[in-house]
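Protocol step 4 of 5: obtain the predicted structure for the target chain.
Materials: sequence only (see below). No template structures provided, no constraints applied. The aim of this step is simply to have a reference model before the mutagenesis design in step 5. Sequence pasted as it appears in the construct record:
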Amino acid sequence: MLQPYRELAAVPRVPGLLTWATLGRLHMTGTPLAMSFLVAGWTGSYALAGVIGAALLTGLGVAGPVRGRTADRRGAAGLIVFTGVCYGVGLAVLAFIPVWLPSSWWPLMAVAAFTVGLFNPPVIPVGRAIWPRLLSGSALNSVYSVDATLTELMYAVGPILAATLVAAVNPEVSLVISGALATMATLGFARMLKLAGLGGPVPTTQHTKSQRAGLFNVRGVIASLALSFFLVSALLMVDMTIVAWARNVGLPILAGVLGAVWAVGSAVGGLVAGGMTGKPNLTRRVVLNLVGVAALVPVLPPVHDPASPWLIGLVLLLGGAAIAPAVATANARLGELAPETRRTEAYGWLSTASTAGFAFAMPTSGFLLDHGGPSFAAGGAVVMAVFGVLLAMRIPAAKPAPVPVLS
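Step 4 output (structure tokens):
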């Protein structure tokens, strides 16, 4: 089972690229929390904190495909350096707007947050797009599993670091440090891209018909993007459900504990899946993800009241093991389907689809929680996962063209 990981470690630059790509997304998991504390303390309103946080995410989603296409055509390294510096400076400015201006100026903060979101460095789409240029076969499947696993761990580590800085110092410092981490990590990632010879435009010897055609004309691309929307929606609805249940029972710390258990389950599942050889079955992995989400419905109130945190934790641990494998396989499939000259753009659209999933899941889960309770919100996540299964069944298998391994 360790053979694919040995293959990864043997390819020059892959460990360094994977490390810097992971660090380059750490800031994304902690920034929303720091921003929420900052704006809520400034305006006294969590609703306004949500509006401004949504503005930041909207900017990210709008610019994702544009940044991806630019990276494909003009090169990724220079773009990452430029956006990384602008984004770090932008977060520092956002941190001090509440210091400089009264809370009645919150619309300006929303506009500024949207603008900063436009400069979010495209580490995730670039990082996912380069792997088929370096790896093939089981090693390629493994790197996507490792990528998804490390992403899950960042979602556990990032908020904890941000919350610690908020509690120990203040939200302003937490947000400034988040921006500094973003800049430093993107600079490191850009340097690794140049060392690996991947910092320039995607090299092509000829523009084939598939490369000239629109990205959305490629069979399976739209279904892959929609699959990301539904997977992210389902996972966020589960996360919101756990947070709401923990608050309802008067033990908000349980939300963090259970979230960590969920992340650990995903990490273990991702590492095991990454060590398997052979072509992963996308539909099977999405079905397993559906089963893990559905198992939460009967262990939450009002179906099971009072609910047991131990039972919920067990379900999250086992069900979480299906998350990283499903996400990794979906990411890899999109990379196989997209033409080489449009691959980063495709992953930019994937970021947009994921952001849309966040935007849809937050109010939807809130409505279900208010009108039915945690098990109803978990049921909503099941519906999203079912749509994901139906889409996974429609995504064709694609065999990437053989690529040389860089030495």
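Step 4 remarks: Residues 215 and 342 are 7 Å apart (CA to CA). Confidence is low (pLDDT under 50) at residues 205-212, 400-407.
Proceed to step 5.
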